[in-house]
Write a structure and sequence with these properties.
Structural class of chain B: alpha/beta
Strand content of chain A: 5-15%
Strand order of the largest sheet of chain B: 1-2-5-4-3
Distance between the termini of chain A: 30 Å
Number of helices of chain A: 16
Radius of gyration of chain A: 23 Å
CATH superfamily of one domain in chain B: NADH:ubiquinone oxidoreductase Nqo5 subunit
Number of strands of chain B: 7
Strand order of the largest sheet of chain A: 1-2-3
Largest sheet of chain B: 5 strands, mixed
Number of domains of chain A: 1
CATH class of one domain in chain B: Alpha Beta
CATH superfamily of chain A: Cytochrome-c3 Hydrogenase, chain B
Structural class of chain A: alpha+beta
Order of helices and strands of chain B: EEHEEEEHE
CATH class of chain A: Mainly Alpha
Distance between the termini of chain B: 67 Å
Oligomer: heterodimer
Number of strands of chain A: 8
Helix content of chain B: 10-25%
CATH architecture of chain A: Orthogonal Bundle
Chain lengths: ~425, ~180
């Protein structure tokens, strides 16, 4: 990170005609609120409608206060916080060891990735070296989780636009992914499988063939989805040119992940700031230029295919790692193997100390970011040298995604509101934390 | 090396494992952010986060620290003595995590320090995304951002009292409705 920072002159995305970034065009006083135009403000034709607080095309509880002029959306205010549970405050009173269960419940659709960002942050402060087998397995599970998350996005957002069969098809594959998670971790969701130092358990017998058959099946399933949607007149009408977010605005509004790539910005932390072994796998970063609902759908469709490729490469590596360690060998941080507790006094003491007091993490502050299914998921961690985090904060990609609702909803009709909010793929647990 | 000294309001900087931390005079954080965006090429502000250091180092810590390779068993604190963390001059830190969308993904953390009652200039005009981030920190940590166009509570209800992420805010401090006998 100490490389020379000079003003960047060559930007990779086509922002304006001459290729120069000119800053945001976002003019309003409050960037996240769409204000009713002055000439309409006192008009009796403007109707204020409450969307929610229930489940209007988001995976959680969101309230949108929408001003309608006929069918046109002229004003929007997003109200969040209904799922605020104080995870950050709760984690301050839990040892690092126990804290692993919290981040996965923050973004409950991209749980595995959130778990990863937390353990990576703690490991970086500890300067703990993780065995390579654990890294490959983490990648594999994170990519499976990405497929799962995009399937939930695709199923629900197509459902909300009337394509109910998509929902059944997507959830068919989602079940398979969850079965794979159950096979490895014993849990379908919120697995708590990543441990600080590696994995909680070794990879069980029989996982590889099951996973391989899923990887073989998934491309065909993607063809099925495309067959239903890609030449479907209603789907195209409802998504193309709707909810446009320009590259400038996407950057100014802090968009990351698929939403940013659908606006024509070629940016993926897995490639541009590799973590785990992402620099050793071969995958493509899908980018589409239009920034509308349709492009956000296309980015996620392509990403599922790329994730399948990554999973296959992880399997190739992992199958040759039978018998290798899956967790770091550091008894002051990592729980000793279960069987040793019966025979070794030393192990019993270590086990007792870690479980009761927790291990201590050196003083410092750190921010670790990964590419979660929704974009840059970050974990900011401050340690005072004790066994509990002094302050922990999660950078939620859904939080930033919802900030873009007002800009996306400019000049749209009320019927498109559902399509737009759904396409941003915000998980409310992630937004509200 | 990046010339952090040219950033307006520069106080000091420290290299970290993932990004440098640059301390900025609180009053000039807005100019510093503008400089970082326009001169240093940090396109995006990914996160704004405040930390409460009330009681920091109040009780020392002892025990084994670090990993097997870096652990020093002769270090005083592993012998039962307590070690205090580095003293902070003010109560709150406000950190801005910046990201440049180019090769190598350079990042930086601009940080300013405030005490109870002091305000921080808002950077919404530099990065519109900071709108909600600043509102969240105001809501949960009670940091007031001057010049924010709409500084209201975001996650907690509008009529909530107190700022839950502060260290002096008790856990379990939520009043239970209908529990008083009247």
């Amino acid at each position: 990170m100490s490389a020379t920072i000079t003003p960047s002159t060559t930007r990779r995305w086509p922002v304006v005609a001459d290729g120069q970034y000119e800053g945001s065009r976002i003019p309003p006083r409050v960037p996240t609120i769409l204000d009713v135009p002055a000439e309409l403000r006192d008009s009796e034709d403007v109707l204020q409608v409450n969307f929610g607080p229930n489940h209007p095309s988001t995976h959680g509880v969101l309230r949108l206060i929408v001003d309608l002029h006929g069918e046109e959306v002229v004003g929007v205010l997003a109200v969040v916080g209904y799922l605020h549970t104080g995870f950050e405050k709760s984690m301050e009173s839990k040892t690092y060891w126990k804290g692993v269960t919290f981040p996965e419940r923050i973004d409950y659709v991209g749980y595995q990735n959130n778990e990863l960002v937390y353990v990576l942050a703690v490991e970086q402060l500890l300067e703990l070296e993780v065995p390579t087998k654990a890294k490959w397995m983490r990648m594999l599970l994170c990519e499976l989780n990405r497929i799962h998350s995009h399937l939930v996005f695709l199923g629900t957002s197509a459902l909300e636009l009337g394509a109910i069969s998509m929902f059944w098809y997507c959830f068919r594959e989602r079940e398979t992914v969850l079965d794979l998670f159950e096979l490895v971790t014993g849990q379908r969701m919120h697995t708590r499988y990543f441990q600080i130092g590696g994995l909680a358990e070794d990879i069980p017998q029989g996982f590889y063939p099951e996973c391989r058959s899923f990887v073989e099946w998934m491309p065909r399933a993607l063809e099925d989805y495309k067959g239903i949607l890609d030449r479907n007149g209603i789907w195209l009408e409802r998504t193309q040119g709707i909810g446009v977010l320009s590259a400038d605005d996407a950057i100014a509004l802090g968009q990351t992940g698929p939403n940013l790539r659908a606006s024509g910005v070629d940016w993926d932390l897995r490639r541009d700031q590799p973590y785990l072994h992402y620099d050793q796998v071969d995958f493509r970063v899908p980018v589409y230029p239009n920034g509308d609902v349709y492009d956000r759908y296309r980015v996620r469709m392509d990403e599922m295919a790329e994730s399948t490729k990554i999973v296959r490469q992880c399997l190739d590596k992992l199958e040759r790692m039978e018998g290798m360690p899956w967790i770091a060998d550091d008894r002051k941080v990592v729980l000793p193997p279960r069987e040793e507790l019966h025979t070794s006094m030393e192990s019993l003491i270590h086990h007792f100390k870690i479980v009761t007091e927790g291990f201590r993490v050196p003083e410092g502050e750190i921010y670790v970011a990964i590419e979660s299914p929704r974009g840059e998921s970050g974990c900011y961690l401050v340690s005072d040298g004790g066994p509990k985090p002094w302050r922990i904060h999660f950078r939620a990609p859904s939080f930033a995604a919802l900030e873009a609702t007002a800009t996306c909803l400019e000049n749209t009709l009320v019927a498109d509101l559902i399509a737009v909010v759904g396409s941003l793929d915000a998980v409310m647990g992630d937004t509200d934390r | 090396m990046t010339e952090w000294g040219r950033v307006p309001g520069y106080v000091s900087h420290r290299d970290g494992p993932e990004m440098p931390t640059v301390t900025i005079e609180t009053a000039q954080i807005r100019e510093a952010c503008e400089h970082a965006r326009d001169q240093l090429g940090f396109d995006m502000c990914v996160d704004v986060v405040a930390t409460d250091y009330l009681g920091w180092g109040g009780k020392g810590v002892s025990g084994y620290i670090g990993t097997a390779s870096g652990r020093d068993l002769m270090h005083p604190m592993t012998q039962g003595l307590q070690v205090l963390p580095e003293i902070k001059t003010k109560r709150f830190s406000v950190s801005y995590h910046l990201l440049a969308l180019r090769q190598g993904a350079p990042r930086a953390r601009l940080q300013c320090w405030v005490d109870e009652g002091e305000h921080v200039p808002s950077v919404v005009e530099v990065w519109p995304t900071c709108d909600w981030h600043e509102r969240e920190q105001y809501d949960l940590m009670g940091i007031v951002f001057d010049g924010h166009p709409n500084l209201e509570r975001l996650l907690m209800p509008e009529d909530w009292e107190g700022h839950p992420l502060r260290k002096d805010y008790p856990i379990g401090g939520e009043p239970v409705r209908f529990s008083d006998e009247q």
